[in-house]
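seq as requested:
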Amino acid sequence: MQQMLKQAQKMQQQIAKAQAELAEAEVTGTAGGGLVTAVVAGSGEVKTIKIDPKAVDPDDVETLEDLVVAALHNASEAARALTEQKMGPVAGGMGGFGLPGF
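struct tokens:
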């Protein structure tokens, strides 16, 4: 029982460390060959959107909207991959404890 508690405490520390690293991390997503760039925190929070003036066409707003969505999606996928990379080893070790969601 003592060993199991030590293991759980170690995993809790690993999770806290991984969450802190994710909060500080930033990933970038692009669309349209770099016409639109989105920067997202590892937590998923959108930090910035950059739009190249060449992407702005008043007669074709839909394309710009699609590029923004695509850049955000690309950045979100990168954030998800980073989360899996940071949390995967920790969460994988929790299966033996029968914790839901891990």
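The longest helix spans residues 61-92.
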